[in-house]
Amino acid sequence: DVALVAAHMKRTMNNMVTRILARAAEAQRGEGETAQREFPVRWIDAYFPFTSPSWEMEVLFRGEWLEICGCGVMKQSILDDAGMRGRIGWAFGFGLERLAMLLFGIPDIRLFWSTDPRFAAQFAPGQISPFRPFSRHPPCPKDVSFWLPDGPFHENDLMDLVRDVAGDLVEDVCLVDSFTHPKTGRASRCYRINYCSMDRNVTNTEINEIQDRVRERLVNQFGVTLR
User: Fold this and answer.
1) Residue 27 contacts by C-beta under 8 Å, 6 or more apart in sequence?
2) Which of 161, 221, 167 minimizes the C-alpha distance to 191?
3) Cα separations (Å) of 27 from 24, 55, 129, 172?
4) Is the peptide bond before 138 cis (omega within 30 degrees of 0)?
5) Torsion over CA: 196, 200, 203, 206 (sign)
6) Confidence (pTM)
7) Is there a contact between 39 and 20 (Cβ–Cβ < 8 Å)?
8) Other C-beta atoms within 10 Å of 211: how many?
9) What is the pLDDT of residues 3-61, one digit of tens each?
């Protein structure tokens, strides 16, 4: 009976972990890469106080053997004390943080206890997207508002312009307000540019100079009217 239960446990764990890691591999797949589809497993004999026999499950993921969980056949005395005499079962324990690190490519477990909103804001229920590293130095946000030109305006062009002026000091650019004048019909946009360095604190004076260049380029290149 123990051998049958252990075989059922290992088969179930293999199927579950394969599904989880396949999604992780797809999310972390680089351009031109083929996502990993096979995940070899090895079972290491272990000791846990509530199961016997017990194993640690290791999986080969992206070239490294990773310990995924501990598991085993439940000790009969525990089932008996729970009023389930004559029953047999198995148990496992996943490190949820470890799984999340694999799924989202999170490099440091300490990020789970971060209060920085830039961490939690990257994730949405039911979606797996790769973690985007952010600086631990404080950001310096600046807003720019303008009336759109008469001709076409593409937001991606704005993003490229900001990156061209500020380089790696730009963490992100996002639309924070959109307005259409009720009389003239002119459309206005307000974008927030988050400036932040990965290795140092930026100064307000430094960022103001960059922001002035961004504003000047917006006028000269796109013909917007600053507000």
Assistant:
1) 103, 104, 105, 128, 129, 130
2) 161
3) 5, 29, 6, 21
4) no
5) negative
6) 0.53
7) no
8) 20
9) 999 999 999 999 988 888 887 777 767 667 777 778 889 999 999 999 999 999 988 88
